[in-house]
Amino acid sequence: MARGKRGLLAAAVTVVCAVTVLAVPGTAFASVPAGPADPSPTPSASTTPAPAVTPAPVPDAELEKVRARLDGLYHDAAVATDAYNAAEEKTRKQSVQLARLEKRTDAARKKLTELKDQAGAAARAQYRDSGMPPMARFLLSDNPEHFADGAGTLLNGARATRKLIAETDRVERELKRDTDDAAARWKKLERDRKDKDAARKTVQARIKDAEKLESRLEKKEKERLAELERQAARKAQTAWLDTGVLKKKADTASATVTSAGARAVAFATAQLGKPYVWGAEGPDSFDCSGLTSQAWADAGTLIPRTSQEQWKQLRHVDVTEMRPGDLVIYFADATHVGMYVGDGKIIHAPRPGRTVTVAGAGTMPILGVVRPDA
After folding, report:
1. 17, 146, 288, 316: which one is catalytic?
2. What is the pLDDT of residues 271-282, one digit of tens each?
3. Is 17 an active-site residue?
4. Whether pTM exceeds 0.70
């Protein structure tokens, strides 16, 4: 009886010890073949795949915030692009003016050299005549015939001398004026170049920020964002058309497309699908005002390079009177422009990452309409 109890106690101790050892964390064990009591070993963590975690889609409200932020960045880029284009245009004009001034100053220097040579020749001639002034030789002449000749020669010489002096003074004044003008233009050219460089950096920074923001979106989010943009454009165009603006269009000769306007529209249409590149004027890429200015240049009419200057300098017409070829200026700061092609539509170069395309004229806030061939 005692022997049986001792056997049961020993078995119990053995089980407890085994449980205790198994409970110690970090204890390593050799692999043991599964016995009859262990037909299906517990699978290890390495053989059990982790459940796939599907990221929650970004709500439309958040995507709308992204869209608003992108619109702001691209608008800032458009503002800087207009500043860049304006500085580029000023630089170009200053360079032309400086080239003209350089030719004029070169010509003035040559002329001044010739005049000084003439003055030197007159001085040498006087020296050859023993240094006696013409007036003295005239008064000392005792030959009546020589006296008469001398009087004429003296008078002509005096006139020639006065003319030489006056011409020399005039050329020197012109040379100084042109030299001062060139110096001032060089300073302005340097300022324009600095403005251009600063605008370039701003454009690049804003576009980089926009691209970085877009790169954080998943493919489906980008597709949804594009759909939200299309929905917003359709909504804005519908609201614009609902004002009856096209029904109010005047049926007059002023609203009829001209041959120049038709040519400008044909040029813009031929550029469809070409990429937007800020500062570009073609032939392979365009920005918004680069497209409109080149279209009208092709039609034989030179207009300002930037949308802001197009708004300032071209004749304004009422939106109800716009005709194909007219330019629709957008946003309160006139930083975007498209060409009206009829039926409530424009052709424009939208922004970086997009191509020249057809869009509703009312998809953006309209500032006004201008007519290049007024």
Report:
1. 288
2. 999 999 999 999
3. no
4. no
* CA-based torsion, 354, 360, 363, 364: positive or negative: positive
In angstroms, what CA-CA distances link 8 with 17, 18, 21, 37, 328? 14, 16, 20, 21, 101
- The Cα–Cα gap between 204 and 194 comes to 15
Q: Is 316 a catalytic residue?
A: no
Question: Region 249-262: what's the mean pLDDT?
Answer: 75
Catalytic site residue from 17, 75, 146, 348: 348
Question: How many CB atoms are located within 10 Å of the residue 233 CB?
Answer: 15
Average pLDDT rounded to a whole number, residues 203-225: 91
Q: Kindly report the number of other CB atoms within 10 A of residue 96's CB atom.
A: 10
Q: What six digits make up the tokens of 133?
A: 């002034």
3-state SS, residue 363: coil
**Residue 75 annotated to the active site:** no
The CB density around residue 86, as the number of other CB atoms within 10 Å, is: 20
Q: What does the pLDDT look like over 65-89, one tens digit per residue?
A: 988 899 899 999 999 999 999 888 8
Cis peptide before 283 (omega within 30 of 0): yes
